[in-house]
Amino acid sequence: MLPVSVSGTSPAASPTPAAAGAASPAGAAPAGATPGWTREQMAQLVAEDIPDGAYVNLGIGMPELVAQYVPKDREFIFQTENGLLGMGPTPAPGREDPELINAGKKPVTAIPGAAFFHHADSFTMIRGGHIDVCVLGAMQVSERGDLANWSTGEPGAVPSVGGAMDLVTGVRRILVITEHTTKTGEPKIVKKCTYPLTGRGVVDTIYTNLAIIDVTADGLVARRLAPGVTFAEVQTATAVPLRAPGEVAEAGASPPEAAPGASAQAPSPRVAP
Question: Which domains does the chain have, with CATH numbers?
């Protein structure tokens, strides 16, 4: 829900996989690290699955990392609910403009050709199906693609749905990036969500530290496994049966390194009215 960067551009001082403790080229995670991919590598994998020229909206937290790994041969146009299409990198320290922020109230920049508009127009863009991809975090995802990501439903829990319900309803493709289990080891991919729903049957693909899982009419398909992780281990950490295609691609190396910085470009002319 809050995009922070543009095509082929890494925000200032953004972490590289090595700096962030990413797995080595051989695919082994650092000693004591969570098994599988790091958060940065997960974000890289998400970015690799987004097509060139896509209009993209990113959620708060881990989804924001996706903006740091836009492939250098692609351009993504980032949109934010508070009324900006063509959001640029995070400004350098001391260069922040207090009147130029994203939906999370973080300072941003605007790329050449960016458009500013009313909050209502922004949601017309979202609800009208003009945004191609949205990357969100999750508390739970069900086997049929139901998403719960805004509240645990516990007494006293602070609701924080934001624009997520509009996004899962109006955006063409919903990608979820999340750890495979909770901090206490409970599966996040479940038969049925027990937390309040954000949307029913809205998730297309789930990216976790253990696997990339597609939501299909035939069930959940483990398309790719993290290095050093077996299908049996992923299944054990998942509360519903998983299917493996003819051959699950076990990654033998880390995802490609983040694209080097490139100059920002103006959004393409197919901006939704």
Answer: 39-250 (3.40.1080.10)
